[in-house]
Design goal:
The complex is a heterodimer of chains A (146) and B (128). By secondary structure, chain A is an alpha+beta fold. Chain A contains three helices and five strands. A five-stranded antiparallel sheet of chain A has the order 1-3-4-5-2, covered by helices on one side. The termini of chain A are close together. The chains are: A alpha+beta (146), B alpha+beta (128). Chains A and B meet through α1, α3 and β2 of A and α1, α3 and β2 of B.
């Protein structure tokens, strides 16, 4: 079944996320991080951060509000019952700290077909309140049967 | 960290309710991760781990190998294959593929019960 790639290149409005210490703590606990910089402001400051930093994979939290709508977009047309998360890449820039406001945009980078499966690739770009890039994400979702 | 070096292995056993905590922390409440009955209805063996939780374990192991500072993990790329499940030990491993100046590239992945759940992982580190 050929996949419909009409949504290739579509971009989505920026989503803003305000980073808070308790959310960082909750996320760090859930993934098993134990570095004190994620839990203690003084330890974070001693290590040269403005406030407690987010673990790198916290990117999934501040990107969710931008990537979610892109995945669900009817023009992209992903069949969720047949979708698996095939791959993920993050490139990190400036550290994200409590108190930051992170703005993330999403784009449909590619829609293609290989071996009867549809490949939907999204890119997210996240910047902080100073306009510095904090993360770029590449999200690859595979849909069986296109 | 020199070419050919192994990074210290990270071993972690996510408990039965870990997917619930990760769902709350990440905002991903897909029932395939939380509800064993739902998961079985869609052909899975039971509720499965979030792939991004497993990726976070790969991130942790590689950050630790670079000295533990979150700023030392510059890039991480993975493929999700197979399915991770709660209540079984995950092992993250890696081998330094390239070490030039301050930049180290590690081939990395994770396995559980002898099968790869994260493969073709590549981490770029700047130890500090």
């Amino acid at each position: 079944m050929p996949v419909d790639d009409a949504a290739k290149g579509k971009t989505f409005p920026a989503h803003e996320y305000e980073v808070g210490r308790e959310k960082i703590r909750e996320f760090a606990n859930a993934v098993g991080e134990d570095n004190p910089v994620y839990f203690d402001r003084e330890a974070a400051k001693a290590a040269g951060f403005r406030d407690v930093p987010a673990p790198p994979m916290f990117a999934v939290v501040y990107c969710a509000g931008a990537i979610g709508p892109a995945l669900l977009d009817p023009e992209v047309g992903i069949n969720f019952m047949a979708m698996v998360h095939g791959g993920q890449e993050f490139v990190w820039g400036e550290p994200v700290c409590s108190g930051d406001t992170i703005s993330t945009t999403a784009e449909v980078k590619d829609i293609s077909e290989k071996g009867g499966m549809g490949f939907y690739v999204f890119e997210s770009v996240s910047t902080n309140q100073a306009g510095e890039q904090v993360a770029r994400g590449t999200w690859t979702n595979i849909v069986r049967g296109g | 960290m020199n070419e050919g070096d192994s990074i210290p292995e990270l071993k972690v056993t996510p408990d039965k309710y870990l997917p619930h905590r990760y769902a709350g922390a990440s905002g991903d409440f897909n029932p395939i991760h939380l509800d064993p009955e739902f998961a079985k209805q869609v052909g899975l063996p039971g509720n499965i781990l979030h792939g991004l939780y497993s990726m976070a374990q790969v991130a942790r192991a590689n950050t630790a190998a670079a000295g533990g500072d979150p700023r030392s993990l510059r890039r991480l790329k993975v493929q999700f294959r197979g399915m991770g499940v709660p209540e079984q030990e995950i092992t993250v491993s890696g081998t330094v593929k390239e070490a030039t100046g301050a930049r180290v590239v590690v081939d990395t992945g994770a396995e559980q019960a002898g099968k790869r759940i994260i493969r073709n992982g590549e981490a770029e580190l700047e130890p500090r």
